[in-house]
Amino acid sequence: MPKDTTGKLKFERSVGCRKIIQNVDGNVSVVRECAYSGGKMHGMKRMGNRGVRIFYYQCETDRCNAAKTSAPTGLASIAVLFLSLLLPVLMVL
């Protein structure tokens, strides 16, 4: 697990990984960070005011909260590029 290099926990070893899913009026964002305090937080929910919902997840194994690969997005980009190059040729025919 990585170590913090700034702040109060400088050079402390993390005890796990944390993923925080924030939903503010339908706009969802995901924050991934190191956890420096223990405790089980799988799906712990916090409600804020005016449509704010936050879910906390914490785990202890390496890469346990890793983001999914974006390979399909890369393939879609190649398909769009291919079609944009092919379209002028088809327009001439």
What does this structure look like?
The relative contact order is 0.17. Helix content is 24%, strand content 32%. The protein has one helix and four strands; from the N terminus they run ββββα. It is α+β, with helices and mostly antiparallel strands. β3 (44-47) and β4 form a beta hairpin. Strands 2-1-4-3 form a four-stranded antiparallel β-sheet, with no helix packed on it. The radius of gyration is 21 Å and the shape is elongated. It has a domain at 16-66. Keywords: Membrane, Transmembrane, Transmembrane helix.
Please state the overall shape, judged from the principal axes of the Cα atoms: elongated
Low-confidence stretches: none
**Element pattern in H and E:** EEEEH
Strand content: 25-35%
Tally of extended strands? 4
Main sheet strand line-up: 2-1-4-3
Give the helices and strands, then pairings.
Blueprint: E1 16-24, E2 27-35, E3 44-47, E4 52-59, H1 71-92
Antiparallel strand pairs: 1-2, 1-4, 3-4
Key features of this structure:
single chain; alpha+beta; four-stranded antiparallel beta sheet; membrane; Snake_toxin-like_sf
